[in-house]
Design a protein that fits this description.
Blueprint lengths: L1 H31 L6 H23 L4 H26 L9 H23 L14 E4 L8 E4 H23 L1 H11 L1 H6 L4 H27 L8 H12 L4 H21 L1 H4 L3 H16 L14
Antiparallel strand pairs: 1-2
Helix pairs in contact: 1-5, 1-6, 1-8, 1-9, 1-10, 2-3, 2-4, 2-8, 3-8, 5-6, 5-8, 6-8, 9-10, 9-12, 10-12
């Protein structure tokens, strides 16, 4: 029982991190109705900014405290993501209002390549370290309940808590604020939203900024675990099954989808892997996503799209 619980908790913590990355896709889709191919590049760009500024600030200012350096680096990286959001809206999105979804999709693909190149030009292309002080040693819990206890990685636990807090805050933002309701209106119909006085340009800057901050937090956590390197962009691929499962229009769906994928990967690898030669964790999420695309393409919580002709 203890081993099963250990695997289950590991899956839940991994699932929260998947949910965090998937949130970036959901945020952009809810505001523009288009899948954002640039999300992985945003994670890499934000993580590179934080890692490099955390290195440069002590050199520039003489500050020796790593805590102050990390806080300042996070603030500067967040400002940079706001600047990126403003430039994306000013240079691309405002010229594509009411265009076909395919046009917007290709725009995000171009933004992805641009951010990949810009990030490595400004900050370099080596492997960089982000150290935010999260403890990496595992801890033993529930020793009185289960024989041998349950081994939990502290870093994964802290990361899951941070992700859960951010996910909860964004859920409240979308459901309870006027800006959140405006975002949903913009996603439904750009022209109708403008006709009732919703400032489309400002809404897009807000949502891309929020998605950028989410990418920054995701990049900070994954960079702390794996190091900041070009392969960080592939983390977005791990989130694709999550948004397919939960639904591209649902913030709660991103949470539930992430937890299902995380738990499913861990349990299938541990309990089914020995019978099929292992490696289930690599492809489990994509097979599950394929099943949902065949039988419920809108996902568990996504809105069913009805086209009237």
């Amino acid at each position: 029982m203890g081993f099963f619980l250990e695997t289950l908790l590991g899956g839940l913590m991994a699932g929260m991190l998947y949910s965090l990355v998937a949130l970036g896709f959901v945020l952009i889709f809810k505001a523009s109705g288009v899948f954002n191919f640039a999300q992985g590049a945003m994670v890499l760009f934000a993580a590179l900014a934080m890692a490099r500024f955390a290195e440069w600030i002590p050199i520039w200012t003489g500050v020796e405290s790593p805590v102050i350096a990390n806080i300042a680096a996070f603030a500067i990286a967040a400002l940079m993501m706001w600047a990126v959001a403003w430039l994306i809206e000013f240079l691309a999105l405002r010229h594509l209002v009411n265009q076909e979804g395919t046009t917007l999709l290709m725009a995000t693909l171009g933004i992805s390549y641009f951010l990949d190149g810009l990030g490595q030009t400004i900050f370099g292309s080596s492997i960089y370290k982000i150290d935010v002080g999260m403890p990496k040693e595992p801890i033993m819990m529930f020793e009185s309940l289960f024989e041998g206890g349950v081994l939990i990685n502290k870093e994964d636990l802290y990361a899951a808590v941070i992700a859960a807090i951010l996910v909860a805050a964004l859920s409240l933002f979308f459901q309870k604020t006027a800006t959140g309701r405006a975002l949903r209106a913009v996603a439904d119909d750009h022209q109708a939203a403008q006709s009732i006085g919703i400032p489309l340009n400002r809404i897009w800057v807000i949502v891309w900024t929020v998605a950028g901050v989410v990418a920054l937090v995701a990049g900070m956590i994954w960079g702390s675990k794996l190091g900041v390197q070009f392969s960080l962009t592939t983390i977005a691929l791990r989130a694709l099954p999550v948004v397919i499962l939960g639904g591209l229009t649902s913030v709660p769906g991103a949470i539930i989808g992430g937890l299902i994928i995380g738990v499913g990967e861990k349990l299938s690898e541990v309990f089914l892997g020995p019978y099929v030669g292992g490696g289930i964790e690599i492809w489990f999420a994509y097979v599950l996503a394929l099943v949902f695309l065949l039988f419920r393409p809108q996902g568990l919580f996504g809105e069913k799209i009805i086209d009237r002709v």
